Amino acid sequence: MDQSYVRHLLPRLAQRTGIEKRVHAHALRHAFAVDLEREGAPLSTIRDLLGHSSAAVTDHYLR
């Protein structure tokens, strides 16, 4: 799957399931990071999984 396909797929799936809010891949990425943090994953692990250059970027991303 490439980015373009996912970008077009998510809104269609949201519409089919009755989700009225805008659904986009960035929201899924953010939710993934927040869930990792809630489960106690170290900031360095979240940083690495998201491909951020520094923990400061990841920390800002989670706020």
Keywords, separated by commas or semicolons:
single chain; 63 residues; mainly alpha
Number of helices: 4
Roughly how many Å apart are the termini? 29 Å
Structural class: mainly alpha
Largest sheet: none
Strand segment tally: 0
Radius of gyration: 14 Å
Low-confidence stretches: none
Overall, the morphology is elongated
* Strand composition percent: under 5%
Q: Quote the average pLDDT.
A: 93
Helix content: over 70%
Order of helices and strands: HHHH
Summarize this entry quickly.
With 63 residues, the chain is mostly helical. Helices cover 71% and strands 0% of the residues.
Explain what you see.
The N and C termini lie far apart (29 Å). The chain has 63 residues and is an all-alpha fold. It is elongated. It has a domain at 25-63. Helices cover 71% and strands 0% of the residues. The protein contains 4 helices and no strands. It has helices at residues 3-17, 25-38, 43-50, 55-62. Helix 3 packs across helix 4 (55-62). The model has no long low-confidence stretch (mean pLDDT 93).
Topology summary:
Layout lengths: L2 H15 L7 H14 L4 H8 L4 H8 L1
